[in-house]
Design goal:
By secondary structure, this protein is an alpha/beta fold. The chain is globular. The chain is 38% helix and 16% strand.
Length: 184
């Protein structure tokens, strides 16, 4: 049985037994908080538990490394929607120790893409169109660098209200311990 089949089978039972009732909330974050964090599987349950968050408390945006690569991309758009439409008043950028984006090798990813059937012509065409693979697939030297960069982009965004506080945190992906990032 595939993962999808297993998920759909479980979901049917979940809905029939009204398992969703425990999670009922509305679309507005109760703690008026928006969190940008990494998509790392270790954080799925650890991050909310370590931050004392329950369903409905915060808008949580996840991507690889909690990195904002473009100030007018989908991550920043989501943060702005959370603030202007959903009432968030504070932003937390949460990176974590042991992140796979640390020292990510973009050349290795491109090589793997080619190995899995993406033609070198596609890569060349993208590069010639202005999509530089080393920028598009970049990571960071340290988790601190990634958090500081994302915080700076959010704080300095021309559509970010000055009343919204923006903080950087780093989480230990084993214990859940949080520490403030050195952000100016």
């Amino acid at each position: 049985m595939s993962n999808l089949e297993t998920i759909l089978e479980f979901n049917q039972a979940f809905v029939e037994t009204k398992g969703y009732e425990t999670y009922k909330t509305d679309k507005f974050p109760e703690k008026k908080l928006v969190i940008l964090t990494c998509m790392d599987a270790r954080l799925v349950e650890l991050l909310p538990k370590a931050m004392n968050l329950k369903n409905g408390d915060a808008k949580i945006i996840k991507n690889a490394g909690a990195i904002i690569t473009q100030p007018f991309g989908s991550v920043m758009r989501s943060i702005l929607v959370a603030i202007y439409e959903l009432g968030a008043e504070e932003v937390l950028v949460v990176g974590h120790r042991g992140c796979g984006m640390t020292k990510l090798n973009s050349e290795n990813i491109v090589a793997q893409a080619i190995e899995r059937g993406i033609s070198e012509t596609v890569i060349t065409t993208l590069e010639n169109s202005g999509i530089k693979m080393n920028r598009f697939l970049r990571g960071f030297e340290s988790v601190e660098e990634g958090v500081v960069s994302s915080v700076a982009i959010i704080r300095n965004h021309p559509l970010m209200p000055s009343s919204v506080q923006v903080h950087g945190l780093i989480m230990d992906s084993e214990t859940g311990k949080l520490e403030m990032a050195e952000v100016n």
